[in-house]
Design a protein that fits this description.
Layout lengths: L1 H17 L16 E2 L7 E3 L12 H14 L7 H4 L3 H14 L3 E5 L2 H7 L10 E5 L4 H8 L4 E5 L4 H10 L6 E6 L11 H10 L3 E5 L14 H5 L7 E5 L10 E5 L1 H10 L1 H4 L6 H16 L2 H20 L10 E7 L1 H13 L2 E2 L2 E2 L9 E6 L6 H17 L4
Helix pairs in contact: 2-12, 4-12, 5-6, 7-8, 13-15
Length: 395
């Protein structure tokens, strides 16, 4: 049986390679940042990390992690309800709640775990989950763990959402679930309309704000702030692994009673080790930095506008928007991969995204802007895109 399984898996791997979907990992030999090196290239510009605020390598964040480890140790070797809750975990939960404007917060090892543990405690077979067609894989997996009815509405289609609400009207509880920012296109959920429909049809609203926290809104508080619906979203999941330092960890933030129940029933919380002290302390430092100053947030907004404007002027087809996720549309799988390889030769680190990560015929290079990028680095990236684009007949 084992030999047959290995044989079948090898055949599947060869098929993945033949179809051009095999994911090679480039090995980075430096810390994360706007300029990195790999085993083949030195001093290349990184334009595909989630390091939106440039905090992954910030000296104050690194120092906070070191200081926390000296004070609180390396790990807890336990889950929260046994002997794995330190004062710093409660401090971080309080600071996240204050930052997001919610009543309470619960920490997880990752936002993937948060999304894996948020549905099953609340949503039973008499309940209904209504989910956007383009929601993140972690949301899809979390929903699969429940026995709730599932309704998938066409991406950001409010008429289809309301139709799903009407079709699920007999459910005891209903939960509308959406990404705040959709990671492949950088488009932002229509939370105002979603909250209106939820109130009209007596449903709850959950938002995964992983690509939004610290990134969008008037002060970087995410999609509820951006759409003006603070206090109307029942549950927010987000990560500390993107804008908020780029390490690991995530959380669920929202109504106090719901969070209290998750502490009793959410399996990834109950059966996974506590968030490491170093990550906890560094994330506290990040939230303190963002609360005291919006300098990094404003720099990110400026860099995003600059890059989008320059790329549009150069003649590239990019998805409209204002998020630092900037999809450069190429439409052909092979072209996207060749374009990314040519850019690497020009000193620009990006990745081509092809089917099945994006729909067929929607291949692209997803650029991600950081507050740590300088004007000169953005200019170099646009110049490299322009050169390769002309060489390949894209522009």
């Amino acid at each position: 049986m084992a030999k047959q399984l290995e044989k079948d898996i090898k055949a599947q791997l060869e098929s993945i390679k033949k179809d051009g979907f095999y994911k090679n990992e480039r090995i980075i030999t430096t810390p994360q940042g706007p300029s990195i090196s790999t085993t083949r290239y030195e001093g290349i510009l990184n334009f595909c990390a989630n390091n939106y605020l440039g905090l992954a390598g910030h000296p104050d964040v690194i120092k906070a992690a070191k200081d926390t480890m000296d004070r609180w140790g390396y790990g807890l070797s336990s889950v929260r309800f046994i002997c794995g809750t330190q004062e710093i975990h409660k401090t971080l939960e309080k600071k996240v709640s204050e930052f997001l404007g919610t009543e309470d917060t619960i920490l997880y090892a990752a936002c993937f775990d948060a999304n894996g543990g948020i549905f099953e405690p609340f949503m039973h077979k008499e309940s209904a989950i209504i989910t956007d067609a383009l929601n993140h894989a972690s949301i899809i997996d979390g929903i699969r763990l429940t026995k709730a009815q599932r309704f998938i509405y066409t991406h950001s289609d409010m008429e289809d959402l309301e139709d799903a609400l009407e079709r699920s009207e007999r459910a005891k509880y209903r939960l509308i679930v959406t990404d705040g920012v959709f990671s492949m296109d950088g488009d932002i959920a229509r939370l105002g309309q979603i909250c209106d429909l939820a109130e009209k049809h007596n449903a709850l609203v959950m938002v995964d704000d992983s690509h939004a926290t610290g990134v969008i809104g008037k002060t970087g508080r995410g999609t509820p702030e951006y759409r003006g619906v603070e206090g109307r979203v029942d549950l927010i999941t987000t990560t500390f692994g993107k804008a908020l330092g780029g390490a690991s960890g995530g959380c669920i933030s929202g109504k106090k009673t719901l969070i209290e129940y998750l502490r009793q029933k959410s399996r990834p919380y109950l059966f996974s080790n506590t968030l490491a002290p170093a990550v906890t302390g560094a994330t506290i430092k990040v939230l303190d930095m963002l609360t005291k100053s919006d300098k990094l947030f404003k720099k990110l907004c400026k860099n995003t506008k600059q890059f989008r404007s320059m790329m549009t002027e150069a003649g590239f087809d990019i998805k409209p928007g204002e998020h630092p996720i900037v999809p450069i549309m190429l439409y052909e799988d092979r072209l996207a991969n060749i374009f990314a390889d040519r850019l690497l030769e020009q000193g620009i680190y990006v990745i081509g995204f092809t089917f099945p990560v994006v729909p067929k015929g929607e291949s692209r290079i997803r650029v991600q802007i950081s507050a740590a990028h300088s004007d000169e680095q953005i200019g170099r990236a646009v110049a490299a895109f322009t050169k390769v684009g002309k060489d390949l007949g894209v522009i």
